[in-house]
């Protein structure tokens, strides 16, 4: 059995979980509290970051994109990187957009300030950082709208890693109730399609102790 080391509100972990489910690959999960810097975990990934995937043959993989591309080659159908040369380039571009730009401008600020500071006792949240993230998210939702008004999915006509990556990042922020869906209906309709997939259901069903989810978080008709 393959094992995924993860954290609940870590979007990179969620990205890998969704890909594993879309590929129909069985796995078990271990919550890794990376701030503890466990030596056994650092031996798996010296960077001390999740996700880390340990394959049944004990091969250790880290970095969400490296893991997802490995899984797409391991289980070619359904293809999640795109069918043609240009589509694969576009999917990778959008994955980078959400993994880097969205995470830096929105996700890391909101999760870091609202969740990690609280659980790690690092002081009061930075209200300026939170306001900046809440402003920035509109730009990203507008970009999703721009894409889905021209394509069926973000990267093209089929579900791809671009959609999975965007949904993974948005789902963590949506847990906190910080996605202004009412202002971005096309983006909301796209996310509703992602929420309805079986690969998302275990994630949407999870709740973090002492941190309740937004009321609409797991509602498929929100």
Structure description:
The protein has 222 residues and is of the alpha+beta class. Helices cover 53% and strands 7% of the residues. The chain contains 8 helices and 4 strands; from the N terminus they run βαβαββαααααα. It has helices at residues 11-22, 39-44, 64-74, 85-120, 127-148, 161-175, 185-195, 201-205; strands spanning 2-6, 27-31, 52-54, 60-62. Strands 2-1-3-4 form a 4-stranded mixed sheet, with helices on one face. Strand 1, helix 1 (11-22) and strand 2 form a beta-alpha-beta unit. Helix 4 packs antiparallel against helix 5 (127-148) and helix 5 (127-148) packs across helix 7 (185-195). It is globular and about 45 Å long. The mean pLDDT is 96.
Strands, helices and their partners?
Blueprint: E1 2-6, H1 11-22, E2 27-31, H2 39-44, E3 52-54, E4 60-62, H3 64-74, H4 85-120, H5 127-148, H6 161-175, H7 185-195, H8 201-205
Helix pairs in contact: 1-3, 1-6, 4-5, 4-6, 5-7
Structure, briefly:
The chain has helices at residues 11-22, 39-44, 64-74, 85-120, 127-148, 161-175, 185-195, 201-205; strands spanning 2-6, 27-31, 52-54, 60-62.
Brief descriptors of the model:
single chain, 222 residues, alpha+beta, Glutaredoxin, Glutathione S-transferase Yfyf (Class Pi), Chain A, domain 2, 2 domains, 4-stranded mixed β-sheet, 8 helices, 7% strand
Q: So what's the overall shape?
A: globular
DSSP strand tally: 4
Poorly predicted parts: none
CATH topology descriptor of the largest domain: Glutathione S-transferase Yfyf (Class Pi), Chain A, domain 2
| Helix and strand run | EHEHEEHHHHHH
Question: Class by helix and strand content?
Answer: alpha+beta
Question: What value does the Rg take, in angstroms?
Answer: 17 Å
Average the pLDDT over all residues and give the rounded result. 96
Widest sheet, order of strands: 2-1-3-4
Q: Percentage of helical residues? A: 40-55%
**CATH class category name of the largest domain:** Mainly Alpha
For the sheet with most strands, the description reads: 4 strands, mixed
